[in-house]
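Notes from hallway chat w/ T.B., transcribed later so I don't forget. T.B. wanted the structure written out for a chain they're using in a teaching module, and asked if we could keep both sequence and structure tokens in one place. Agreed to drop them here.
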Amino acid sequence: MENKNMFFNEMSGPDDKVREPYQDYQEWMISEKPARLKKKQAASEAFFRRTGITFNVYGREEASERLIPFDIIPRIISEREWSRLSRGIEQRVRAINAFLHDIYHRQEILRAGRIPAELVTNNEAFLPQMLGVSPPGNVYTHIVGTDIVRTGEDEFYVLEDNARTPSGVSYMLENRETMLHMFPELFAKIKVQPVSNYPRNLRRSLSACAPKACTGRPVVAVLTPGIYNSAYFEHSFLAEQMGAELVESHDLRVIDGRVAMRTTRGYEAIDVLYRRVDDEYLDPLNFNPDSMLGVPGIMDVYRAGGITIANAPGTGIADDKAIYSYIPDIVEFYTGEKAILKNVPTWRCSEADSLAYVLDNLEDLVVKEVHGSGGYGMLVGPAASKRELASFRSKLKARPDNYIAQPTLSLSTVPILTNKGLAPRHVDLRPYVLVSPDNINITPGGLTRVALKEGSLVVNSSQGGGTKDTWVLEE
């Protein structure tokens, strides 16, 4: 197998010795014929196509619906590695929830000078409409996706926190379903922690956050922008798996101080709305008046305790990439502990010294928009052309506060199956966290995204990346 010594290979170490988490898998794989593996890879793609596991790509003239590329070589994590990761994720999520409650109430972290006040109050993700509002159970981020990268045996970094509407969990579930279908003998040989209980846990977690107006079994619904949204497959998938209603704005209206959905029996009040609509479009009376995706007056119902919105409005400031650079301070401020998981070193281009450094070293850095996602609006310096570098220099000088920069990390690799055999490709990991008033539940593993192009560091599906099943081993 091709091995790049400059990157940490999660399957085989620098001496090409198979690492412990992969030893049982390697033993199985040696007995497999390459032709059978290639046949299974093709069968998995056909399975995805039949299931309809697609995503939409915006801004392209050709057909926008695409198949999610899937690789059948799993990414394997030991129980010891996962234990440390999950402790760090839980610590981080608790701190983020405490931070959100604080900035919308007493703002003690700003008074203490641990974060510049203008970074919060002048931030477009900060919602003044949430000042003084306490969500049921004080839960702001009901569902979190924490993006993690690895650079060495015990070197893990959080790349970003997805606290608004993290996507991809349906692919995590379907990846596992596909692997169980393709390789049942593998799961008999290797004990892997299950992920299939995520929809049940999601329903339970959301129900635990029901508002005071709820009088019986909480009614849960998923609000989608509609079939043209890039994650519509996931919206419909999760609603079906949870046994919740999938609704659009035209299905909803405010009746007697509650948000109600249209049913065959008339309108029924919703207790918990898992919204996959951005803040700006959530309520045309309070935000964008031209929005056709939200519910007029839903924020008034929310503030009065008539509905739970998951994730809470205004949570986007917690995954702002400028705020991200202060997360170690946020963790220490609210927990009294040092952050278990490290941040990637970050230069805030809004600061003159940092901007000067970034402009001088642009070809070596990764530059991101503070509110960017999906791999859009970013520059990977080492892979950029002279024209791209020049264009980004102009953008940085025009709007420095819109960007942060980070070093180009030596992301770990995991093998993928190619026509020539196994070859290493860079990966990241998005574990999914469910938060309720009394519990934080982290699904063992998460979504491994893989850069299918040799040498590429961009793993996003919208940028040509694929996915893998992620195995967390049982002890």
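Follow-up for T.B.: The longest helix spans residues 79-103. Might be a good example for the class.
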